[in-house]
């Protein structure tokens, strides 16, 4: 797993970008997305789902989940899920909600730059 961390956010949280490749989950992208949503809701009771949509990253169909969570402050999270023949790829961007409008375009460009996905 690789992690990239940016400058400190407005509310004591650093924006972060996590890219993880796992073994193929053995289910369709739709089922994997449902499983991911269930896990997010279970792990983060304050989760507020904003939207789930389909997109393409590196020429591969992906699902993207937008959500907010509250700890001591509000955070916004965008999670991309995509499947290759052999693996699952998870790309997660999290930042303080106050910083989201300033950083969202940069992180969308990071996600769209994934051109080397087999």
TrEMBL record:
It comes from the Bacteria. This is DUF1795 domain-containing protein. It comes from Peptidiphaga gingivicola.
């Amino acid at each position: 797993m690789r992690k990239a961390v940016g400058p400190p956010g407005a509310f004591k949280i650093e924006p972060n970008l996590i890219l993880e490749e796992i073994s193929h989950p053995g289910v369709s992208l739709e089922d994997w997305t449902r499983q991911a949503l269930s896990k997010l809701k279970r792990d983060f009771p304050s989760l507020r789902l904003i939207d789930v949509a389909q997109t393409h990253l590196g020429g591969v169909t992906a699902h993207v989940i937008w959500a907010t969570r509250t700890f001591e402050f509000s955070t916004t999270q965008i999670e991309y899920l995509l499947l290759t023949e052999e693996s699952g790829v998870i790309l997660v961007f999290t930042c303080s909600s106050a910083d989201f409008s300033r950083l969202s375009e940069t992180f969308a460009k990071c996600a769209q730059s994934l051109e080397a996905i087999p």
